[in-house]
Specification:
By secondary structure, this protein is an alpha+beta fold. It has one domain: Transcriptional coactivator/pterin dehydratase (Gyrase A, domain 2), CATH 3.30.1360. The protein has helices spanning 7-16, 39-56, 83-99; strands at residues 21-23, 29-35, 61-65, 68-73. A 4-stranded antiparallel beta sheet has the order 1-2-4-3, with helices on one face. It comes from Xenophilus arseniciresistens. Its EC number is 4.2.1.96. It is an enzyme of class 4 (lyase).
Length: 101
């Protein structure tokens, strides 16, 4: 079972990833909206995330409208945030940055 992040670990992550917003809902979650040039680019991003999520067995909650993708991360087994969420957020940030011209 994944271990829930400590408050210090959470604060370290939030300091390094200012675009992610933290909420205490459901024991703790982080979310971020990404914007892309068009739907194809947003869908390609989601596909890359989906493939990584399957490998990690850690699946995001997300919402997509045209060029926007909103991702919410939490670890149900940890009743809050875990290292899996931090890893997935970092991957999302790197993939989104690589998609920008």
């Amino acid at each position: 079972m994944p271990k829930k992040l400590s408050e210090a670990e959470l604060q370290t992550f939030l300091a390094r990833a200012p675009h992610w917003q933290h909420s205490e809902e459901r024991g703790g979650l982080i979310s971020r909206e990404f914007r892309f040039a068009d739907f194809s680019q947003a869908f390609a991003f989601m596909t890359q995330i989906a493939m990584a999520a399957e490998r990690m067995n850690h699946h995001p909650e997300w919402f997509n409208v045209y060029n926007r993708v909103r991702i919410t991360l939490t670890t149900h087994d940890a009743s809050g945030l875990s290292a899996n969420d931090v890893e997935m957020a970092g991957l999302a940030d790197r993939l989104a940055a690589a998609a920008q011209p």
